[in-house]
Amino acid sequence: MSGRALLLDLDGTLIDSRSDIARAVNHALTGVGLPARPLGEVAACVGDGAATLIERLSPGANQATRQRALELFKDSYAERCWVDSTIYAGIGEALAAFRRDGWLLAVVTNKPLEHTTRILARSGLAAQIDAVRGGDATRKPDPGQLRESLAELQASAATSWMIGDHHTDIRAGHAAGCQVCFCAWGFGRDDGLEVEARAESPARLVDVIARRT
Questions:
Q1: Which residues on neighbouring strands pair with residue 197, listed in sequence order?
Q2: Which of 59, 120, 181, 211 is most buried by a 10 A CB count?
Q3: What pLDDT, in 10s, does the model give residues 134-146?
Q4: Does the domain at residues 5-16+85-210 carry the CATH identifier 3.40.366.10?
Q5: Where are the chain's structural domains?
Q6: Has this prediction a pTM greater than 0.90?
């Protein structure tokens, strides 16, 4: 495989989705009699999939309550996943520049595929993306989604990058054999893990990758 790809996380990397996620989370929590949570607390729990998100925000709840909350969250978020969410400034230009430079682009996220494809379509980002993987079967830090994307794009891991704002992106990228660029503008955390590059803003992302390829 001779192609080169950029594997892109979604939440906290391409889009700021905190408000829409928090709205759906609090609809779910209050729907099962649990207290709503502030935006910052919800955002700090994003990145490991919907089930883990609900679990972290419902301490002391039993499994049946959490399962019902998860169902409410998924239904609510499916209906209102692109209301207050926005594309980070500079992302559209960065993706266009990467495509001009011959990069193949994939979105690899722990968000369910249904929500992911809807967001990409409504945001207008879908036209710039060559492959999409959601977290329905496997989730980062498992590298399965990344390997599937590389295979679909016929791209080599050795010349490809994982780009994201969360420690799961770093772990998955390295496990797949890719280089990793951490996005410091997102709402995730790197857990002190080493990366090959760090971008402070979307406007700097193209230059950061170009200097290392």
A1: 181
A2: 181
A3: 999 999 999 999 9
A4: no
A5: 5-16+85-210, 18-79
A6: yes
